[in-house]
Amino acid sequence: MWCNVGFAEQIIIECLGTHSYEGGEKKWNKWKRTIQVDFVESGIRDYGLEGFTGDFNNIIITDDYFYDYGLIVFLVPEFLVQVSKIDRLLGDMSVTTTFINEEIYKEIKIKLDEVNSKIKNYEKQLSHKYEVYNPSKLGNNQQEIEKYNIVKPYAEGVKGKRGITQETTRNEFECKKATKAF
Fold it and tell me: Taking the model in full, what pTM does it have?
């Protein structure tokens, strides 16, 4: 007997903010985000916050989580380092961001470049003469999770205060799969 089970190629998730942490202080977060997840392209479009255009971004998709990371030039000489994770079982999402100086950017870059050197056909992405790091479709999940784990302690500010130019922020959301109205 054949089983013909189909899997969605895309889902829409709706997320409502619960808390924000800035400088260790807990605040209410009532931001709303609508995120389209594309399983075929391994990416998302985030339509939720003001200024978000719904541009496509690669993510790391596993059975239990959606992961994203970024090391991006913000305003030279300041860089944004960020990780986000959505728990597919519980619906929790967290986005943690820290701004760092060029010295710490270079420290993280060396580690990420080591992983990227093992990815066939990897191409650098540049912004303002600096390399930008986000999940790549060229790397496998193991390589991309390795890069996420490199970026994570810097984004969380647990590498110490050295090189941090702004306080670490963490925003938490509760997400659910959108349902059809009719």
Answer: 0.87
